[in-house]
Amino acid sequence: NTQREIALYFPGFKLPEAISAVADLPSLANRRDMLFVTSPGYLHTERAQTLQPHLQPHHTVVLWAKGLRHSDGALLTDVWRQAVGPELNLAVLGGPARPNDIALNQPAALVLAAEQPTRFEAISALFKEPTLRLYYSPDVGGVQLGGVMRAIAAIAAGLCEGLNFGYSARAMMLTRMLAEAVRYATAKGAKRETIMGLSCLGELLMGAMEGESKNSRLCVALGQGKSTTEVVTGEVEYISGIAATRLVTADAVGLGMDLAITMALDGIIQGDVTAEKAIQFLLLRPRASEVEEVKL
C-alpha cells in the first residue's frame, strides 16, 4: 500500500489510489459484492473454503485463472460450487490479454462466460476503459477448458523451440494441438466456437508470439534434455500445464480418446520417453485425414 506497486510481477506500474491490499480475505466479502479471484488454479479449493462462510446470495465470484483441481480434474467453477454451494453466482474470464498490456491501456479483448447475460452486463459495467473489449459467452465450462488446453499447447510450442525446430514444426504442433483441444473440449460438452475463440485459440496465438510463459519455458528446457525435476524445482505448482497434461491424458484414456500430442507431452514430462523419441512417434503414426469425418 505504501509503494503502490506489485514489484515482483509488474515493476514500474503504479496502482490507482482506489486499490488497496488486505491480508484478510473474508473482509473483502464483507465490503464488496463482486470478487475477482486471480490466484493460481491449485489454490482455489483453499480460497473457496476460506470465503465460504462469508459469501451471500448477492455475491458474484469472477474467476480469472486457468487450471483443474489436481486431485480429480474438476473445473474451477465446480471447485467453488462444491465448497460454497450450487447457488453461488459465478463467472469466468479468459482470453489473450496480458496484465501489462491492460495496465498500459493497449487494445485487448477478453471473453466473460456466465450462465445469465444479466450477470455479464453487471460485470462488464465495471470495465470502463475503452481499450479493453469484453465478449459474452454462456459456455462457462468451454472457456475454462479452452484455457486448460492452451496451457498444454504452450508446452508443445516450447518443446519445438527446445529441440531447435523451425517455425514449420511449431506451426504443425500448435495446429494439431488445436485439433486435440476441439476434440477433447467438445467431448466434455464445450462448444467448438468457444475453443476457436479467445479463451483457447486467442491465447494460443498470443503464447506462440511471445513464448514467455512458464509452460513454454518448461518444454524448451525439456527439449534441451533436462528433466522436469530440474526445471520446476520450487515452482512445480505454478506451471499449470504440468497438472493439466497429466489430468487430460488420464481423462482421455478413460474416454477412449486419441490425444496423441497431449499424451506424448505427458510422457516427456513424466520422464517415460525422451523428447526426440516422442516426436519420432508422432511423425511415424499412421497417416490420417485432417477432416475427422473422412477415413483413410
Low-pLDDT segments, ≥5 res: none
Mean pLDDT: 87
Q: Helicity, in percent? A: 40-55%
Taking the alpha carbons of the first and last residues, their distance comes to: 63 Å
Structural class: alpha/beta
Q: Report the count of strand segments.
A: 5
Helix segment tally: 14
| Major sheet summary line | 5 strands, mixed
Give the strand order of the largest sheet, numbering strands 1, 2, ... along the chain: 1-2-3-4-5
What does this structure look like?
- The structure is a single chain.
- By secondary structure, the protein is of the alpha/beta class.
- Helix content is 50%, strand content 9%.
- It contains 14 helices and five strands.
- Strands 1-2-3-4-5 form a five-stranded mixed beta sheet, sandwiched between helices.
- β4, α5 and β5 form a beta-alpha-beta unit.
- α12 packs across α13 and α13 packs antiparallel against α14.
Summarize this structure briefly.
With 296 residues, the protein is α/β, with parallel strands linked by helices. The protein has helices at residues 25-31, 44-51, 76-84, 99-103, 117-124, 140-162, 167-187, 192-195, 198-210, 214-223, 228-232, 240-255, 260-270, 275-283; strands at 34-37, 60-63, 89-94, 108-114, 132-137.
